[in-house]
Amino acid sequence: MQLLDLVKNKYKIVSVVGMAKNAGKTVTLNELILQAEDKNINIGITSIGRDGEKQDIVTSTEKPLIYVKEGTLIATAKETFDVSETRMEILEITDFRTSLGDVVIARALSSGYVQIAGASTNLEIKKTCEKMLSYGADLVIVDGAIDRVSTASPAVTEATILATGAVISRDMDKVIEKSVHQVNLFDLNKIEDEKLKCLAEEALEKYKVCIVSESYDIHCLDIKTALSAGREIANALEEDSRYVLIKGPLVSKTLKDITTYTKLYKNVTFVVQDPTKIFIDYTDWQYYQRIEVKIAVLEKINILAVTINPYSPKGYYFDPGDFLHKMKTIIKSVPVFDVMQGGGI
Predict the structure, then answer these.
(1) Over 80: is that where the pLDDT of 199 sits?
(2) Is the CATH number 3.40.140.80 carried by domain 194-297?
(3) What is the pLDDT of residues 283-341, one digit of tens each?
(4) Average of pLDDT values for 35-58?
(5) Residues 210, 220: Cα–Cα separation, whole Å
(6) pLDDT for 175-197, tens place per residue?
(7) pLDDT, tens only, 55-92
(8) E-strand stretches of the chain
(9) For a tag on the chain, would you pick the N or C end, based on fewer CB atoms within 10 A?
(10) Ramachandran angles phi, psi of 241, nearest 5°
(11) 215: which residues sit within 8 A by CB, 6+ positions away?
């Protein structure tokens, strides 16, 4: 099975999200482009960060280039459009502005290397993808930027592929640990209670934090953000409280304060929009699991696969076969691919 088989004829907009720089995200993107060409699938590509440059601007390490074939649709900022090697036909100059100029949608008239730096907000990325579909793309791939897993949100893309690799740590077990944690976050339980979902949708349009009782009575707190309001949330919990609805990010400090100031947290489930709103590392997550903190989402992320890169630009690497075997042994919910070996299982 190839990576593209998980996408073909099933989804129109897919993101590739890296757990860190040099985790193999661009290699994964290139593999999808190559496989799409073999199957005569017209693709569009864009990015929420900058990609395709020969050297990483932040780390000064060599990066894999993005190679596209004639006919590929590209949405990128004007500055990167001007330095791409392939000849391109401009289809539209959007009003999506970035630090590198307005986002341009174009079609490649020849094969060659390109840089991509797309729109900077999720809404603009979504609209950009829809525009490329209207120009004839069968599939649009969004290259997610480091620490911007928000492109995996169901509000932006239909499905996502997670790229991870040796660059995360010299310790293979730690790489696997952190990767599994991210997969588990993406696969968090979804709220199925339709009445609660309707309440949440309406309440979170106006408020940042709302508490729902066993009988669906709702109490919304007059706070600007949940980030520093853990104690206030704790004080608002009552014996019959069952859900804490949180708009925006859920961070470890908020949970720490809540669990410190009340034991009633054990009666409730903390609910966020989707897993991209959760910012809790593996160690803290394990702790909250032990003390019976329950977290759920209104929308799950549709994770299709995990791709691994056993090589780090820092000069060390894992045994590819061993790394792949261990990752596949632990991650059973989705396929795992070694993209450095060609993207097949």
Answers:
(1) yes
(2) yes
(3) 999 999 999 999 999 988 899 999 999 999 889 999 999 999 999 999 989 999 998 77
(4) 73
(5) 4
(6) 999 999 999 998 898 999 999 99
(7) 454 444 455 678 898 999 999 998 888 888 888 999 99
(8) 13-18, 43-47, 50-51, 66-68, 73-77, 88-98, 101-108, 112-114, 116-117, 139-143, 159-165, 209-213, 218-221, 241-246, 250-251, 269-272, 278-279, 294-297, 303-309, 336-338
(9) N
(10) -65, 135
(11) 240
Q: Which residues of 50-70 are buried (b: 16+ CB within 10 A; e: fewer)?
A: bbbbeeeeeeeeebbbbbbbe
- In single-letter form, the type of residue at position 269 comes to T
All structural domains of the chain with their residue ranges: 3-187+301-341, 194-297
Answer for the pair 230, 254: CB distance below 8 angstroms, yes or no. Answer: yes
Rounded Cα distance between 114 and 339, Å, is 20
Q: How many CA atoms lie within 13 A of 64 on its CB side?
A: 20
pLDDT single digits (tens) 233-287: 999 999 999 999 999 899 999 999 999 999 999 999 999 998 989 999 999 999 9
Instruction: Please say whether the beta carbons of 278 and 253 come within 8 A.
Output: no
* Inter-residue contact 80 to 117 (CB < 8 Å): yes
Percent above pLDDT 70 for the chain: 92
The confidence score (pLDDT) of residue 57 equals: 44
Pick the CATH number of 3-187+301-341 from 3.30.2010, 3.90.1010, 3.40.630, 3.40.50: 3.40.50
Place of tokens 């949440």: 200
The amino acid occupying position 92 is: E
CA dihedral over 250, 254, 256, 259, signed as positive or negative: negative
Residue with tokens 């079609």: 107
Q: Using CA of residue 267, residue 295, residue 289, residue 236, what is the dihedral sign?
A: negative
Given a cut of 90, whether residue 128 has pLDDT beyond it is yes
